[in-house]
Design a protein that fits this description.
The chain has helices spanning about 5-10, 15-20, 25-35, 55-60, 65-75, 100-105, 110-125, 130-145, and strands at about 45-50, 85-90, 95-100, 165. It is of the alpha/beta class. α3 (about 25-35) runs parallel beside α8 (about 130-145) and α7 packs antiparallel against α8 (about 130-145).
Length: about 160
C-alpha cells in the first residue's frame, strides 16, 4: 500500500474533473462519439474519474483493474455484437485504459489500444484534454471502421454522453 498515492487520490476533489473536462469539452466528446458510431458497428463509452475510491486504493487496485470494473458497471459489454469499447481516464495519475469487448478483441490486438492510450496520456500531461481525447476517438474510430463497418441497421445501443465517476 502506497500512502503517498492514497493521499493524492483522496485529496483530489471531485470538481477537479470539471477543470480538465469542462462542460464544453464533455459535449465535444459526446458529439465525437456520436459521429464515430456512424462509421462502424461498435459502441464507445468514455468515463473519467478524479481519483480511485479508498477501497480500491487499499487493495492496490491498478487503473486497468478499475477500468474492468467500470466496463462492467456501465454495461459496455451489453451490445448485440459484443462490440463495446470503454475509454477510461483516471485523472490524478493521468492513466488511460481502453477496454474492448470480446468481439473487438478478436480482431484488434490490445497493443493497438495501448498505443492510443500512451499517446493520450502524453497529451493529458501537456494539458491537452479536449484535443487529445478527440484525437484518440478518431484513432479508435479508424480501427473500428476497418473491423466493424456499419451494417444496414446500426442502432445506438449505449449512451454517447461521457460519464464522470
Amino acid at each position: 500500500m502506497n500512502l503517498k498515492r492514497i493521499l493524492r487520490h483522496l485529496f483530489l476533489p471531485q470538481w477537479s474533473i470539471g477543470l480538465a473536462f469542462p462542460k464544453g469539452t464533455l459535449q465535444a466528446i459526446e458529439q465525437a462519439i456520436a459521429a464515430s458510431e456512424k462509421n462502424h458497428d461498435a459502441e464507445l463509452r468514455f468515463a473519467v474519474e478524479a481519483g480511485l475510491p479508498l477501497a480500491a486504493l487499499t487493495r492496490g487496485q491498478t487503473s486497468r483493474q478499475r477500468a474492468v470494473e467500470v466496463f462492467s458497471q456501465l454495461r459496455v459489454w451489453d451490445t448485440a455484437h459484443n462490440s463495446g469499447v470503454l475509454v477510461y481516464v483516471q485523472l490524478i495519475d493521468r492513466k488511460v485504459e481502453i477496454l474492448a469487448d470480446r468481439g473487438i478483441n478478436a480482431l484488434v490486438p490490445q497493443s493497438e489500444w495501448d498505443a492510443i492510450c500512451r499517446r493520450l496520456e502524453q497529451r493529458y500531461r501537456k494539458g491537452e484534454f479536449e484535443q487529445g481525447t478527440l484525437a484518440a476517438i478518431a484513432a479508435i474510430t479508424e480501427h473500428l471502421a476497418r473491423h466493424f463497418p456499419p451494417g444496414e441497421a446500426n442502432p445506438d445501443e449505449l449512451p454517447n454522453r461521457p460519464v464522470t465517476l
